[in-house]
């Protein structure tokens, strides 16, 4: 089972694909234009994107280019209209994983989806390159992060704190544990250092930093991270 995002402006086509993918056991979300598609990548964090090329607002190529420039490596299968020449060179440069031309059989698309998912599953590191952390997708190998508005700058320490949270999701982490694992004892940081970093991180990952939904303060104990 995978999370599949369909970006397709033809409502009937989008709904029919959704039904078929759900029947296969996948979790599905639909976006009807390019801008909505980008937003959905960050809110839904799909394992695979079915991306129509001719879309309102932003073309499928533009959506793909924007995601790849933010180091979002989620696999993409392009849908192209009947008779539309697919720019395979451009698609390849943009990092597309496969193409299918309308009209196509759903059976064939599902076979291609499974092939792409298998390819990515065989490369677990690549598959887990982008972590969803609140409204951010973060790449801990390349130390890049982005939200629906584009790149977000994080310091090296902020990446380290986030990575530690991700590895220990759902567990209460004390300030001194964070200091031990992220700062070490070399430059005499205080628990206030931790709190300052958390406040800055919340601004970058929480929709409302005053009402955090991802980095919770557990009074008297420390913090707890939930994706
Ligand atoms: Ca279209």
In which range does the helix fraction lie?
40-55%
Indicate the CATH topology of the largest domain: Rossmann fold
List the domain count as a whole number: 2
Order of helices and strands: EHEHEHEHEHHEEEEHEHHEE
Tell me what you see in this structure.
The protein is of the alpha/beta class. It folds into two domains: 120 residues, Rossmann fold (3-Layer(aba) Sandwich), CATH 3.40.50.2300; 96 residues, Arc Repressor Mutant, subunit A. Helix content is 43%, strand content 21%. The chain is built from nine helices and twelve strands. It has a five-stranded parallel beta sheet with strand order 2-1-3-4-5, sandwiched between helices. The mean pLDDT is 90. It binds calcium ion. The site of calcium ion has 5 residues, from loops.
Summarize the structure.
The chain is of the alpha/beta class.
């Amino acid at each position: 089972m995978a999370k599949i995002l369909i970006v397709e402006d033809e409502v009937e086509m989008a709904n029919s694909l959704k039904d078929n993918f759900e029947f296969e056991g996948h979790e599905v979300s639909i976006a009807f234009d390019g801008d909505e598609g980008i937003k959905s990548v960050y809110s839904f964090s799909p394992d695979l994107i079915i991306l129509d090329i001719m879309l309102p607002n932003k073309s499928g190529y533009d959506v793909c280019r924007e995601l790849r420039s933010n180091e979002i490596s989620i696999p993409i299968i392009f849908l192209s209209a009947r008779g539309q020449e697919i720019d395979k060179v451009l698609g390849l440069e943009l990092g597309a994983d496969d193409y299918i031309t309308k009209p196509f059989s759903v059976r064939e698309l599902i076979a291609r989806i499974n092939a792409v998912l298998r390819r990515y599953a065989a490369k677990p590191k690549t598959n887990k390159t982008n972590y969803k952390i609140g409204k951010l997708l973060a790449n801990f190998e390349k130390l890049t992060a982005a939200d629906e508005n584009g790149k977000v700058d994080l310091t090296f320490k902020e990446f380290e704190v986030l990575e530690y949270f991700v590895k220990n999701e759902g567990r209460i982490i004390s300030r001194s544990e964070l200091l031990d694992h992220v700062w070490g004892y070399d430059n005499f940081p205080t628990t206030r250092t931790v709190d300052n970093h958390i406040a800055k991180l919340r601004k970058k990952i929480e929709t409302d930093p005053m009402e955090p939904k991802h980095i919770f303060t557990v009074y008297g104990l420390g913090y707890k991270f939930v994706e």
